[in-house]
Each structure stands twice: as C-alpha cells, then as structure tokens.
C-alpha cells in the first residue's frame, strides 16, 4: 500500500503541494488531475523519492518495483528497440531470454509497427511512446506511475494504452496517473484526486464525486416553450440551443421532477435526461471556485 | 550478487558496449597505434638503456602524456554519456530504476573496463609489432624502469582519471542540449592541460626541493593535482616514494568526499530540466 499523509512541498516560498493525503492499494488505479502547475509532477517526484516533502509522511515499501513514465520522456534514438529494452530489463534484474520474450509479446499487444532490431529514431512518435510504455510494463511492476500517458496518442492507441493499464491493474499493480483527458479518467479510475495550485479540491471514488454534485444537469429535446423556465428559482442556468432543445443546470436537483411533470403534460418528449455533470464540468467548476 | 551490484554491472556493460560499437571511440583508439607503428618503422632509436637518469626522464615525460591522453578521451566519453541520458529525456526514468550512485559507479566502471581493454590491446599490439619489426626497444625501456615507479604511475593514473571523471560528471549533468557538451568538458580539460604542462615543466627543470617541499606537499594533497604531478616528480628524483604515497592516500580521502558530493550534484543535475549556466552550476557548492 502507498499512503500520503498530509504531505506538503514548498520551494522558496512557493507551495507546490499542500496537505495532500490519499491511499492506494494493490490493483487500484488513482488518477491525479489538475491544471498545469497544479502539483502533479511534484507529487510523483516525492513518491519516487526524487525530492523530500517539506512536511507530512509518505509510506511505501522501499523495495517496490516501479515503472515510471515521466511527462518529459524519450529513448536512446540511435539504439535499437531490442538493445535499450534489454538494458532497462537488466536494470530491473530480468533475465535476457525472459525479457526478449516479454518485449515481443508487448510489442504485439500494443501493435508497435516495426521490428525489434529497428532503431528508435525510425519509429513514429506514437510507436516510440508505446515502446516507452513497454519499458515500464514488461517487468510486471508493483507500482506504475504514468505522467500524462495519453498526450500525443491518437484515440486508437489511447485505447490500447487503456487496455494495457487495465491488464496491469488485473495483475495487482498499483497505478497512479495524471491526465487532462477526463474521459480516460472515467474509464480507468477507482479513485480521483483533483489538485488546484497544490491544494486538494476534490477527492474520492468516481461515485462519491458524482454524488457530491448530484444529477444537476438536464438535457431536454422536443419541447417548444423552454423560455418559460428562464429565471426560475430552481434553475441556475439555461442554455437554449434552438427552438425546442436546451441544456439546463439545476440549483436544486429535486426541481427536475417539477420540470419533468411540466414538459410531459402535453405527452411525448423525445429526450429528457437528468444526469450528473461530466468530470470535465466538475473539474472546471472546482478550478473556478478555487481561484 | 545483490540487486544494486547487478544494476551497477548492467550500467557498466551498457556503457562499455556503447563505446565499443562507436566509430568515434575507435578513431581515438587507433591514433596512438599509428604513432607507435611509425616510431617502430621510421625512427632509428638508439637509446642508452644503462643510463638511469635518461630512463627516468623519458618515463617522467611519458606518464603525463599518457595520463593526458587517457583522461582526454574518457572525459569526452563520460560527458557524452551523461548528455545522452539527459538529452534523450531518460534521466528521470533511469533515476526511478537506478540510484544516482549506481549510475555514476556503473558509468565509471564501464570507463575503467574500456581503459583496461585499451591498455591490454596496446600491449598485445606492441608485442606483435616488436616481433614483426624485430625491434623490442619499448620492452627494453620498460624493463629498465623501476617497478615501484610503474606501480605508482598506474595507481596515480587511475586516481587522476577517477577525479577527472567525477569533475566532468558534475558539469555534464546540467547539460540540456548536445551543444553544451563542450562547455561541460571545458573545465576538466583546462585543469588537465594545466597539470599536464606543470608535470612536463617539473620533469624538465625540477625545483628547489628543500625550500619548496612543504608547499608542494600541500599542493599535491589535492586530487587530481597530486596524482598528475607526482609520477613525474618521483621520476625526476624531486620527491620520495613516502612523499608520493602519503599524498596519494590523502588524495584518495579527499577524493572520496568530493565523490560523495558529486553523486549529490549528479542527482540534482539529472532531475533539473531548466537550461542553466553549466560553469556556475558545476562549481556551486550544494
């Protein structure tokens, strides 16, 4: 298990991380979300023991086998995939034969276009990124740290990455990653920590977070008199898209029932969807509040 | 073998093979071979091998030249190696797997293996050349040098190289693009050139030993000054073995302190991505 207990880090008076606490268990995925400069990379650096926290405790087993894909990542361009993967494998204590087998399996799994003897400089950016991921995954790490793993990947390759991460989770790897892509957070995370200027503005499981906000979003399509809801007490904001459709943000979730009764009085309505705000919307709201 | 040792050997192996497969390394490797071959072929060497003063003087010149040559090659190699990790954006990932200490030690071990390979190759090459050319002047010459002086010179060469490598690492870990490699190698190369010139100077003119001995003792306590100067000073008869070995021991102790500091600087430098003035960062006390 990994535990951050009231961890803070400041540099020359600048508070990079402020009172951060979370726990991560075997086979769990935690996503760290926040704007640029929110303190995500600093958190990773403290977890990797690159830097010491100014206060608080980080509890983790020192013998953890860690796979780390930093935000600023690369490979030896002039070396072949095989050479450098074998080098990384040997640093993890893997045997050459076992490592070669794993590299080939992962290259196939992640659909890396190219031969194992190819030099990295001949690979496309996406393929190079997949090779970097193989370097982190091939030794079955106990802890996988991925800093912005989806940046630069097309949707097809992003899906391959998600699959690989979920497979690692299945085998018991603890995974912590940062991203700006909320859709992938929803697909992967067991636990979310949202940072803004180093402060934790939101944390919990996805369900906890959605429940905090409730079904405050309402989409209506096929009702002609939407203007009448403007200015009503239970409504925070109404965004009329055209004559008969609108996105509504509710102040009071129970007000949805009142609207439903009203708009269905006249009979059939093609769309009435009262739903949770997206993680993207929650993120923007929280950032605005913290500023 | 424990895990850290295995990591250290993995880094050393990677370093060794990288250089072994590099064209630029072999270019530097063969230059002395060409010079030695030319010596064997074209120079009619009529040495007086019974004149010990002459033997010592030649040795006193040869050792600084060899130290200069080997240090020059390996300063460039280690600077390039650290720069390659940094400019390939691999330093953070490597640091998450291997401690800074094992990385430095592995790189240095790789370089010492290359040095041993180079010396062994040169020896075999000269042996073969002597047979082919029917000229064994080099072995005759080495045979006349005192064994104690040879042992001390080799020890001093290893200490000098270690110190120059540690200094180079301190500068090169702040490299953010390959154009900065020359800036990182400049300070150690300036030191190297300075000590090399001084060695040659003291070997040829000597010094007033009685009055300057304590000043020299203090100067020679500092690595790599002492390790670069003392072999020539022993050869020219200006200092005793006791003097030389006692400074070497003090140098190794100081070198250890500086080495521990260089690990700290190396870790800091590898994790720093901002473009900085390499001279200032390398000399800064942390």
TrEMBL record, chain A:
The keyword Nucleotide-binding applies. One of its GO terms (molecular function) is ATP binding. Pfam families: ABC_tran (PF00005), DrrA1-3_C (PF13732). Residues 2-222 form the ABC transporter domain. Keywords: ATP-binding, Nucleotide-binding, Transport. SMART domains: AAA. Belongs to the ABC transporter superfamily. This is ATP-binding cassette domain-containing protein.
């Amino acid at each position: 298990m990994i535990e951050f207990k009231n961890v803070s880090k400041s540099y020359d008076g600048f508070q990079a991380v402020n009172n951060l606490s979370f726990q991560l268990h075997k086979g769990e995925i935690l996503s760290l979300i926040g704007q640029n400069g929110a303190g995500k990379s600093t958190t990773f650096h403290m977890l990797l023991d690159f830097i010491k926290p100014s206060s608080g405790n980080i509890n983790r087993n020192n013998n953890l086998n860690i796979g780390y894909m930093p935000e600023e990542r690369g490979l030896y361009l002039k070396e072949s995939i095989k050479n450098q993967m074998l080098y990384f494998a040997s640093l993890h204590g893997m045997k050459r034969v076992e490592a070669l087998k794993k590299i080939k399996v992962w290259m196939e799994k992640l659909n890396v276009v190219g031969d194992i003897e190819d030099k990295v400089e001949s690979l496309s950016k996406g393929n190079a990124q997949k090779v970097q991921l193989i370097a982190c995954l091939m030794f079955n790490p106990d802890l996988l740290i991925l800093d912005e793993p989806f940046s630069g990947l097309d949707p097809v390759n992003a899906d391959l990455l998600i699959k690989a991460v979920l497979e690692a989770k299945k085998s018991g790897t603890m995974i912590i990653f940062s991203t700006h892509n909320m859709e992938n957070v929803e697909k992967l995370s067991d636990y979310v920590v949202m940072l803004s200027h180093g402060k934790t503005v939101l944390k919990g499981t996805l369900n906890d977070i959605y429940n905090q906000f409730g079904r405050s979003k309402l989409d209506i399509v096929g009702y002609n008199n939407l203007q009448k809801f403007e200015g009503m007490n239970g409504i925070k904001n109404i965004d009329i898209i055209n004559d008969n459709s609108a996105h509504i943000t509710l102040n009071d979730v129970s007000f949805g029932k009142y609207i439903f009764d009203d708009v269905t009085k006249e009979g059939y309505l093609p769309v009435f969807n009262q739903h949770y705000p997206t993680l993207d919307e929650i993120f923007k709201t929280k950032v605005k509040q913290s500023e | 073998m424990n895990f850290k040792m295995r990591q250290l050997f993995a880094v050393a192996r990677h370093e060794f093979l990288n250089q072994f497969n590099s064209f630029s390394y072999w270019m530097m490797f063969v230059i002395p071979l060409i010079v030695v071959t030319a010596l064997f072929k074209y120079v009619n060497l009529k040495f007086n091998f019974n004149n010990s003063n002459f033997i010592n003087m030649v040795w006193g010149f040869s050792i600084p030249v060899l130290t200069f040559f080997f240090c020059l090659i390996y300063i460039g190699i280690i600077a390039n190696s650290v720069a390659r990790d940094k400019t390939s954006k691999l330093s953070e990932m490597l640091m998450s797997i291997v401690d800074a200490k094992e990385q430095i030690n592995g790189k240095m071990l790789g370089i010492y293996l290359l040095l041993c390979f180079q010396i062994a190759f040169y020896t075999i090459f000269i042996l073969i050349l002597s047979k082919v050319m029917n000229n064994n002047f080099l072995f005759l010459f080495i045979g006349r040098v005192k064994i104690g002086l040879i042992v001390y010179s080799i020890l001093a060469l290893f200490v000098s190289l270690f110190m120059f490598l540690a200094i180079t690492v301190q500068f090169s870990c702040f490299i953010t693009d390959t154009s900065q490699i020359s800036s990182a190698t400049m300070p150690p190369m300036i030191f190297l050139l300075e000590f090399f010139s001084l060695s040659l100077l003291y070997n040829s003119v000597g010094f007033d030993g009685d009055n300057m001995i304590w000043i020299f003792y203090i100067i020679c306590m500092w690595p790599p000054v002492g390790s670069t100067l003392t072999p020539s000073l022993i050869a020219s008869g200006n200092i005793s073995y006791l003097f030389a070995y006692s400074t070497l021991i003090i140098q190794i102790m100081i070198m250890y302190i500086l080495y521990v500091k260089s690990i700290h600087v190396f870790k800091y430098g590898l994790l720093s991505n901002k473009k900085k003035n390499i001279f200032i960062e390398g000399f800064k006390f942390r």
